[in-house]
Design brief:
Layout lengths: L2 H15 L60 E5 L5 H10 L4 E6 L2 H14 L4 E5 L12 E7 L8 H11 E15 L4 H5 L1 H5 L8 H10 L2 E11 L4 H7 L2 H7 L5 E11 L2
Parallel strand pairs: 1-2, 1-4, 2-3, 4-5
Antiparallel strand pairs: 5-7, 6-7
Helix pairs in contact: 4-7
């Protein structure tokens, strides 16, 4: 499957989710489309409810961490959120940067942009903006942002080297990123990796953790640090749909696994 086909699948799946509430996404990783049967993929997400700036309407439970937790955001910073969805992380970041800062969300799914803008308007924020565009070709100038964050999105981008290259380009010198994402340990079977619907569900687009960190280094970042890592438990009922009995045993022998990580790195240095 070509990159553009995969992007279109992601657009369609997340467009289906855009008008739902968090409670409605618990039945499957692709919301109402039901592509992953009855699997609860809110197991990827973390609880935002006690964070300042939390906005329930913006929380669809689609993340795999809280990147703002380790992003070192300060009052007055200019922050970019990649794959901003309904705006959950943007509104958390806005509570930190305050009135003097600026938060921009970038997303390639128009219904998500619309939902985020409507919520933002209800909050009457003048320093939060949502922009339509792709991570591999961001519609921003060089050296624009102090900090880039992203939550469970870069694994869905076909060309991760290009994505991190773009992050480097739009960051100011000395700026940094902090992203939460899904990675794997060992090789996943082709049937699981290549299935288009699972790809939109945040698993098959993931790459090996060490390869992921190598891409970050290759793209010119320094001070790379993994702040948090947790294993994602995929229900056996789902795995058996994609794996042979031998592959299933291998998946559980400790040599393979799916993890969420929160990683940061600095431009330059």
């Amino acid at each position: 499957m070509k990159a553009e086909q995969l992007k279109q699948i992601v657009r369609e799946k997340y467009s289906d989710i855009a008008d739902q509430k968090r409670s409605s996404t618990k039945s499957s990783c692709c919301g109402a489309s039901g592509c992953c049967s009855e699997v609860d993929y809110t197991i990827f997400s973390e609880n935002y409810e006690k964070l300042e700036g939390y906005t329930p309407d913006a929380d669809l439970g689609l993340g795999c961490g809280i990147p703002t937790e380790f992003a070192g955001i300060r009052k007055g910073d200019s922050v970019l959120d990649l794959g901003s969805g309904a705006g959950n992380d943007c509104f958390i970041a806005r509570a930190i940067v305050g009135e003097t800062g600026k938060v921009t969300g970038l997303d390639m799914t128009e219904p998500m942009i619309i939902k985020a803008r409507e919520t933002c308007a209800s909050l009457t924020f003048s320093n939060v903006d949502f922009v339509y565009g792709e991570i591999e070709e961001m519609p921003f100038g060089n050296n624009t942002f102090d900090i880039v964050v992203s939550n469970c999105v870069l694994n869905l981008v076909p060309d991760k080297t290009k994505a991190f290259g773009e992050i480097n380009r739009v960051l100011k010198y000395g700026g940094h990123f902090c992203v939460s994402d899904v990675v794997i340990k060992g090789n996943l079977p082709d049937k699981l990796r290549k299935d288009a619907e699972m790809y939109a569900g945040c698993v098959s687009g993931a790459i090996d953790k060490e390869d992921y960190l190598d891409i970050i280094k290759t793209c010119g970042f320094s001070k790379i640090e993994v702040h948090k890592q947790r294993e994602i438990s995929i229900p056996d009922t789902l795995l058996t749909e994609y794996l042979s009995p031998e592959e299933f045993r291998s998946f559980h022998d400790g040599n393979r696994g799916i993890f969420s990580i929160t990683v940061s790195a600095e431009k330059g240095g």
